[in-house]
Each structure stands twice: as C-alpha cells, then as structure tokens.
Specification:
There is one protein chain. By secondary structure, this protein is mostly helical. The protein has one domain: Arc Repressor Mutant, subunit A. It is 49% helix and 6% strand. The protein contains 6 helices and 2 strands, in the order H-H-H-E-E-H-H-H. Strands 1-2 form a two-stranded antiparallel ribbon. Strand 1 and strand 2 form a beta hairpin. The chain is elongated, with a radius of gyration of 18 Å.
Length: 137
C-alpha cells in the first residue's frame, strides 16, 4: 500500500477523462464505450454523465443509438469547470484543513497545503478540453 499526498476522487477522474474522450471521438459516445475504454464502472460513469449533463457540459440521448456528446466548444470547458461540477468549488481558506479553531499560534503545515491547492486550481483553470485535442493525448 502506498500513500499519496494528492488524491483525486474517482468521480472527478471519470469526469475529466471522459470529457476528453468524448471530445476526441467528436460524435455520440455511450457510457459502455467510455467505461470499457478506461475500465471504469458503467454505473459510476452513468452517474457522472448525469451530473455533467445537468451542468450543461454534455448533451445526452437515450436509447440504443443514444449516448453523450459535448454541449459546448472544447475551448470553453476547463478542467476546473469539470472538477467543480463533481467536487464543488475549490476554496482556499485561512486554515488549509478547514478547521474553525486551532490551538496553535501558527499553522503546523505552514503555507504548503494552500500553495498546493492554489497551484492545482491554476493548472485546472489553464487547461481546457481543446488543449488535450491539440496536444495529441
């Protein structure tokens, strides 16, 4: 077992990977194809697709010839947009752990947690779906 400092939820990972895959296909793509391509649970992909549809990022059609397709221009969808649909807004607060009260005069973690959060948020904001289409992912 290994520990990681950074941990992306499975739902956020499914959302980001699926959105790039959908854009690459440039046509109606179904949940089964997405789940098989990435070895994700079909049910988890379906739940994530529902959230992305509700947010207006993809269009969904039911039925045997149904599936999902981007509802927006790939350059107008940042990874941050996708991430925040799944996880909520990334907040940088006084306490990087989200505690309301601390017994110490200074944070034991110093600025590192907020710095990493800020850098992660900036990366997600800078990268849009079009970036991954243009750079042969």
């Amino acid at each position: 077992m290994s520990n990681k400092i950074f941990n992306l939820s499975e739902a956020a990972s499914i959302a980001i990977h699926s959105m790039v895959y959908i854009a690459q296909n440039n046509k109606m793509t179904n949940v089964i194809k997405i789940s098989e391509h990435f070895h994700f649970s079909k049910h988890h992909v379906a739940k994530v697709m529902q959230r992305l549809t509700k947010a207006g990022m993809i269009k969904s059609n039911r039925g045997p010839s149904g599936g999902v397709v981007l509802a927006m221009d790939p350059k107008d969808i940042s990874l941050l947009d996708i991430y925040e649909v799944i996880e909520g807004k990334i907040l940088i607060s006084d306490c990087p752990m989200g505690y309301e009260f601390c017994s110490f005069n200074k944070c034991l973690f110093g600025p590192i947690v907020n710095d990493m959060t800020r850098r992660f948020k900036e990366y997600l904001q800078e990268k849009n779906i079009q970036y991954f289409l243009d750079n042969d992912y």
